Amino acid sequence: MLTGKQKRFLRSKAHHLNPIFQVGKAGVNDNMTKQIEDALEARELIKVSILQNCDEDKDEVAEKIVSQTKAELVQLIGHTIVLYKESKENKELVLPS
Questions:
Q1: Is residue 97 part of a domain?
Q2: Which stretches make up the CRM domain (predicted)?
């Protein structure tokens, strides 16, 4: 689990990022989960946007992505999810302790 200090650090790092995935009418599927996992391995910190036409509740979408990718939910603000997962091979972010 991330501490408050680590979440603040990650939020500041994520601030300038653009969402690289969009969850729409189809919701979260296995293919999207796989792509999000790959992106997390490459970048560690990503944003996912939930479109207006998404039928699922944004909290459910965030929960589903987190449980399927084993990532950490840094923030859910508006319709944007910020996710963090430590990379095995491309580790760049050093979290404050």
A1: no
A2: 1-96
Residue 92: inside a domain, yes or no?
Answer: no
User: Please, which pLDDT band fits residue 97 given cuts at 50, 70 and 90?
Assistant: confident
To which H or E segment does residue 38 belong? helix 30-43
- Look at the chain and report how many structural domains it folds into: 1
pLDDT digits (tens, 9 = 90+) for 39-54: 999 999 999 999 999 9
Domain region containing 67: 4-84
Pairing of strands 45-50, 80-84: antiparallel
Q: What is the pLDDT of residue 17?
A: 97
SS3 breakdown of the chain: % helix, strand, coil, rounded to 5? Answer: 40, 20, 40
Burial (CB < 10 A; 0-12, 13-18, 19+), residue 37, is middle
